[in-house]
Design goal:
By secondary structure, the chain is α/β, with parallel strands linked by helices. The protein is built from twelve helices and eight strands. It has an eight-stranded parallel β-barrel with strand order 1-2-3-4-5-6-7-8, surrounded by seven helices. The longest helix is centred in the last third of the chain and has 19 residues, at about 180-200. The radius of gyration is 17 Å and the shape is globular. It starts with 5 loop residues before the first strand and ends with a helix. The structure holds 2-phosphoglycolic acid (PGA). 2-phosphoglycolic acid binds near residues 175, 214, 215 and 238.
C-alpha cells in the first residue's frame, strides 16, 4: 500500500496571532499548487490555532496543535483539553515532542494518555520519538525507540494506529543543523517499522506514515524522503517562512 507523503510544520513557541495570519495566508497561496498530492499541516501555538483554522479553511493545508491534556477538563492549570481543540477545528496534535520530554517532564506514560485523549476527541496524533546523542553514541538507539513505541502506543488497536503518524526526530538533529544522513535515517525508520510490525502486525506497519524530523530543509528533503521508509517530515525552523516551507515540500514530493 502506498503511503502518502506528509509534511507538517511545528512552529513551536513562535508567531503571534497576527504573524500566524500573515504566514497562513502566504502558505494558503503558495501550497495550493500541490493539491492533494501530499498531506500538509501547520502546528502553531495555542493562541494562534483559531486564526490558522480560519485562514486555512477550505484549503489543502490542515492545522494541528502542539500538545493536549488527557483529562476532559478540570484543575490542570496551563493545559488544554481535546474538547477545546476539537471546538476550534484542529485536526492533528503533536504529542511527545522531545522538547516536552526534556523540559516539561513528558514520559512514555503521559504520551500514551495524551494519545488516548486525542483519539477520543477524533484528533490525529503525530507521536514523536527519538534518541539523544549520548544514547546514539552508546549504541542504545534501537532500545530507546522500542521503549518509546511500546510505552507510548500501549493498549492501542490497529484501528487507532490508522489515525496515528510517527515522527522520528533524533534529538541531536533538532535545531542544530545536523541531519541524520538519509541512509542512517532510513536504517532507523526501518527499525521503527519492524517494531510496529511486531506490535500491531505487518499491515499496520506498512500503512503507518513515519516522518523524519531534525534540521530537515529544502536542500535535504529530497534525499531523505526518497528513502523507502521515510514518508515525510516534521519541520521546525524551515517551517517558519512560506518560501522555505514551500521549497521543502516541492523537493519532498515523491
Ligand atoms: P528543526 O525542528 O526542523 O528546527 O530541527 C524539528 C522539530 O523539532 O520538530
Amino acid at each position: 500500500m502506498a503511503r502518502k507523503t506528509f509534511i507538517a510544520g511545528n512552529w513551536k513557541m513562535n508567531k503571534t496571532a497576527a504573524e500566524t495570519k500573515a504566514l497562513a495566508e502566504a502558505l494558503k497561496e503558495s501550497l495550493a499548487q500541490f493539491g492533494d498530492t501530499v498531506t500538509m499541516a501547520v502546528c502553531p501555538t495555542f493562541t494562534s490555532l483559531a486564526t490558522a483554522v480560519e485562514v486555512l479553511k477550505g484549503s489543502n493545508v490542515k492545522v494541528g496543535a502542539q500538545n493536549i491534556h488527557w483529562a476532559d477538563n478540570g484543575a490542570f492549570t496551563g493545559e488544554i483539553s481535546g474538547a477545546m481543540l476539537k471546538e476550534i477545528g484542529v485536526e492533528y496534535v503533536i504529542i511527545g515532542h522531545s522538547e516536552r520530554r526534556q523540559y516539561f517532564g513528558e514520559t512514555d506514560e503521559t504520551v500514551n494518555k495524551r494519545i488516548k485523549a486525542a483519539l477520543k476527541y477524533e484528533l490525529k496524533p503525530i507521536v514523536c520519538i527519538g534518541e539523544t546523542l549520548e544514547e546514539r553514541e552508546g549504541n542504545k538507539t534501537n532500545c530507546v525507540l522500542a521503549k518509546q513505541l511500546k510505552g507510548g502506543l500501549a493498549d492501542l488497536s490497529a484501528a487507532d494506529m490508522a489515525k496515528i503518524t510517527i515522527a522520528y526526530e533524533p534529538v541531536w538533529a533538532i535545531g542544530t543543523g545536523k541531519t541524520a544522513t538519509p541512509e542512517m535515517a532510513q536504517e532507523t525508520h526501518a527499525f521503527i517499522r519492524a517494531t510496529l510490525a511486531e506490535m500491531f502486525g505487518a499491515d499496520v506497519a506498512e500503512a503507518t506514515v513515519i516522518q523524519y524530523g531534525g534540521s530537515m530543509k529544502a536542500e535535504n528533503a529530497g534525499a531523505l524522503t526518497a528513502q523507502k521508509d521515510i514518508d515525510g517530515g516534521l519541520i521546525g525552523g524551515a517551517a517558519l517562512k512560506a518560501d522555505s516551507f514551500t521549497a521543502l515540500i516541492a523537493n519532498a514530493q515523491k
